[in-house]
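User: I'm new to structure prediction. If I give you an amino acid sequence, what do you actually give back? Let's try with this one:
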Amino acid sequence: MADIISFRDDAASQEPAVSVESFAGQNNATAVRIEPGEDARALIPDLDRLSLVEVNFPAFGDGRGYSAAAILREAGYTGELRAVGDVLVDQILAMRRCGFDTFAPKAPVDRAVLDAALARYPQVYQKVAVSERPIWSLRHG
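Assistant: Good question. You get back a string of structure tokens that encode the predicted 3D arrangement of the chain. For your 141 residues, that looks like this:
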């Protein structure tokens, strides 16, 4: 796995994440990993004790993790939300808008290419799980 790319002010968590199933049976774990097909809503009662949620993307075409991120952010989760696995540079902007703030792609990412991709569109049109205001709202209040 390549280095962690972080958009947080604090340091990226180094705690190993447990499975959702294992997390349900523990009271000391603070990091969990969601696999495709698992329901992120199962974590909502315990969001206050989580410091890291990893969402696995086993293949770049599997978009179920986007929904997991949006569900957690809309439920009030403010901890680290990390996309891991087959994360491509052109997906990171959309992932950021869903609420991901750290990334652990399996292949290295050229930071200059990432920065250019993130700067390409300074405004957005749709509402998102994060606080970014869409352009229509900026235009019309």
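You can read the tokens as a compact description of the fold. Here is one thing that stands out. The two ends are 43 Å apart (CA to CA).
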